[in-house]
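Quick one:
INPUT:
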């Protein structure tokens, strides 16, 4: 333990580096990072347990930063810890820099999550805490003895997702979760009192959190609060740290620049910057310096961590020797590999809704994959994720022996919790809701795609055939929105999301197989509410792995190729029967994933959908979403308007999703 004066000196070092990074980049947010420097300094120099030699050690503590604009604070403290260089800090916000404006997932450097939209980051921490409890229930507390730390600002506190995160963490009793709330009461354009008057402490107490209120710039109070939080065995803890925005900042005239919105989102600039660096004990001509006494603190901590890790490794070795099967599980869980599944043995009921087909697969997965977690937003009996419950049970207060998260009506929170589980590692995360509610999840989908996390997103009620629930519950544009991520490339050059909409229950099995084999990106699985006829006999469903394949009428030179995904494929099959009566040679193509299809060779693509041939596309979504598949010579029958409330078979007739209309449209085109 270091004295308060030395700890403040170290925090001032972080503040100097923070202000200098923003000044050099001529871009950034210095104020909040300067105010939070005291907390991260105490946390990293005295509390965070990680392996300096192996950043991927599964039992490490994890720190999730919610306000990504406070990245200079995190980069600076990680530089003190030896994860970044001074030159790295000098390249802040520049092309190719390891220090982007908002931190991006980089476990090797100590960055546990990509920080972006406020509110998501601390929800990832909730998911990671769930994953840690889940793994401890299977492997033992002595191996997964870790603390998940989160850092949230006033903005993240105001984002609605915070309510869901707080509720779930308290309901489950996540005693391994410690969150620091940087309550500086200053926002980007105003003060907090102008936008909220809530009592944060009472709010979290009502959610069953332990609440500790401190001076967030006092290292002694921070240390005491962290010890108290670590000792808490029943509840998550929030430390409300009252901090000073822009702590140590001086204006050009030498007056205090603290508690001012002006320090929030722009460089200090000119004499204000010079005065601030001097006030904090730095040299404005050479601010990128680690003070020797500060370096000594972190050198000492590194030595302590090496001793801690030597003890932990010996403990793990003894545990592995005494528990070889558990040791094998630990290795397998964190490898991301899944046990062999006999996909061919899964028996589906022909003509069922594809959501029922998904349920059948989920039942098999719950029986065979010990480290899979499934969640649902209060819809498991309708989105049919309850198939997973056939071999497990839901989490409960201090009970993580099950593998199902009843998330309540909170789609975004649920999705972000699953992202946090994936970030923690060791678990396979999946979650379900109605497809129309993917609108609530879009910010999380984007972040999962950006971080290349293999979360499985399960959506049922895929189209207007929700029927009587009406246009509020009938997805139209949602598939187009989700498939945009399928068309985007991530930083690894892959399609940033795999999206699969199976044509029948057998194709649903193949879709799940592809989802489970996809360990590089998130997967979206889109299933029907209504019964769907099976595709014609003899269909090779394994070809679904190629994204699109011929399912019927594979004439060598078809007069027309009919293209669809999901429920509409069976409508094409019925329409093709009428066309064949007129002697029209028809080919039918199921396209569960255009992204996968476009990754195939040009020769294969042309062999399935002939270039320059007559093509008719049918989609229950926006018609232009199929335009790339159909081409200039083709025609798409889609839904370019909101739905209406009526039984789904009536809507099929009214909207033209019938065999007869397929026949009529193709005849007109030919």
């Amino acid at each position: 333990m270091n004295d308060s004066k030395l700890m403040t000196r170290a925090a001032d070092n972080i503040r100097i580096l923070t202000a200098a990074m923003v000044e050099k980049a001529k871009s950034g947010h210095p104020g909040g990072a300067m105010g939070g420097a005291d907390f991260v300094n105490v946390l990293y120099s005295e509390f965070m347990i990680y392996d300096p030699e192996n950043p991927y050690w599964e039992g490490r503590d994890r720190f999730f930063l919610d306000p990504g604009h406070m990245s200079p604070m995190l980069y600076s403290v990680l530089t003190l810890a030896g994860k970044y260089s001074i030159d790295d800090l000098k390249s802040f916000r520049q092309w190719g820099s390891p220090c982007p404006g908002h931190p991006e997932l980089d476990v090797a450097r100590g960055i546990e999550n990509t920080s972006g939209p406020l509110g998501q980051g601390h929800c990832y921490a909730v998911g990671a805490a769930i994953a840690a409890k889940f793994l401890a229930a299977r492997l033992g507390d002595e191996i997964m003895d870790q603390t998940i730390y989160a850092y949230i600002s006033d903005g993240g506190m105001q984002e609605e997702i915070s309510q869901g995160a707080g509720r779930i963490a308290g309901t489950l009793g996540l005693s391994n979760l410690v969150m620091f709330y940087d309550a500086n009461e200053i926002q980007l354009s105003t003060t907090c009192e102008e936008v909220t008057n809530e009592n944060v402490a009472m709010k979290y107490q009502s959610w069953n959190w332990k609440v500790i209120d401190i001076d967030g710039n006092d290292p002694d109070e921070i240390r005491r609060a962290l010890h108290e939080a670590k000792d808490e065995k029943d509840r998550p803890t929030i430390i409300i740290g009252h901090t000073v925005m822009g702590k140590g900042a001086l204006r050009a005239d030498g007056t205090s620049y603290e508690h001012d919105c002006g320090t929030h989102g722009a460089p200090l600039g000119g004499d204000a910057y010079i005065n601030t660096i001097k006030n904090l004990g730095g040299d404005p001509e050479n601010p990128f310096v680690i003070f020797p006494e500060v370096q000594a603190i972190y050198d000492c901590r590194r030595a302590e961590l090496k001793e801690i890790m030597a003890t932990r490794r010996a403990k793990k070795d003894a545990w592995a020797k005494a528990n070889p099967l558990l040791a094998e599980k630990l290795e397998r869980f964190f490898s991301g590999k899944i046990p062999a599944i006999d996909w061919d043995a899964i028996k589906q009921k022909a003509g069922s809704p594809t959501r029922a087909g998904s349920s059948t697969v989920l039942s098999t997965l719950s029986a065979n994959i010990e480290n899979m977690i499934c969640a649902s937003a209060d819809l498991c009996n309708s989105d049919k994720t309850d198939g997973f419950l056939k071999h497990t049970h839901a989490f409960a207060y201090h009970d993580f022996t099950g593998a199902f998260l009843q998330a309540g009506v909170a789609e975004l929170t649920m999705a972000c919790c699953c992202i946090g589980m994936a970030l923690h590692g060791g678990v396979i995360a999946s979650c379900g809701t109605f497809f129309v509610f993917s609108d609530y999840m879009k910010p999380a989908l984007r972040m999962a795609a950006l971080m290349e996390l293999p979360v499985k997103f399960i959506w049922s009620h895929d189209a207007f055939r929700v029927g009587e629930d009406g246009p509020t519950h009938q997805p139209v544009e949602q598939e187009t929105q989700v498939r945009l991520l399928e068309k985007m490339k991530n930083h690894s050059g892959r399609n940033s999301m795999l999206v699969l909409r199976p044509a029948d229950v057998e194709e649903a099995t193949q879709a799940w197989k592809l989802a489970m084999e996809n360990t590089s990106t998130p997967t979206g699985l889109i299933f029907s509410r209504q019964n769907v006829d099976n595709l014609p006999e003899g269909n090779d469903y394994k070809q679904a792995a190629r994204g699109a394949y011929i399912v019927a009428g594979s004439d060598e030179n078809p007069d027309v190729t009919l293209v669809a995904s999901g429920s509409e494929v069976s409508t094409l099959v019925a329409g093709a029967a009428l066309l064949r009566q007129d002697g029209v040679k028809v080919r039918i193509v199921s396209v569960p994933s255009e992204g996968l299809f476009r990754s195939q060779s040009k020769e294969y693509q042309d062999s399935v959908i002939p270039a320059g041939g007559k093509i008719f596309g049918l989609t229950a979504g926006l018609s232009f979403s199929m335009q790339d598949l159909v081409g200039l010579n083709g025609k798409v029958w889609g839904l370019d308007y909101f739905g209406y409330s009526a039984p789904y078979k009536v809507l099929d007739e009214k909207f033209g999703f019938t065999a007869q209309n397929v026949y009529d449209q193709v005849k007109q085109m030919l």
